[in-house]
Write a structure and sequence with these properties.
105 residues, 4 helices
Length: 105
């Protein structure tokens, strides 16, 4: 028979390890909505900034991209330094890299 404390510790570790992947999946769904025009940039940014289980290096890059996305939302047209499409592409690339890193065993 296994020690109940050991079982709880292992289960807790599994739950904690799943949190970043779960948060990333929710953020991916919101990014798709943003890309399709069903979500405003400010709403996406607020949701993304609330993701606290991501590793620090991914959070830093995400916040930099969000700062630029929020700035780009101030312009009604595409500008050379604030292209929303380029930022959405960068967010998609970030998402793919973060998912790949988090889903590794």
């Amino acid at each position: 028979m296994r020690d109940p404390a050991e079982i709880i510790r292992r289960m807790s570790n599994a739950v904690l390890a799943a949190l970043p992947v779960h948060q990333l999946h929710a953020l991916d769904t919101s990014l798709l909505a943003l890309q399709h025009g069903d979500l405003l940039a400010c709403a996406f940014s607020s949701e993304a900034r609330a993701q606290t289980a991501l590793p620090p290096r991914y959070t830093t890059v995400l916040h930099d991209l969000l700062d630029r996305l929020e700035s780009s939302a101030l312009f009604s047209e595409e500008s050379s330094s604030f292209s929303q499409q380029d930022l959405l592409d960068s967010l998609r690339m970030w998402m793919d890299k973060a998912r790949g890193a988090l889903e590794q065993p």
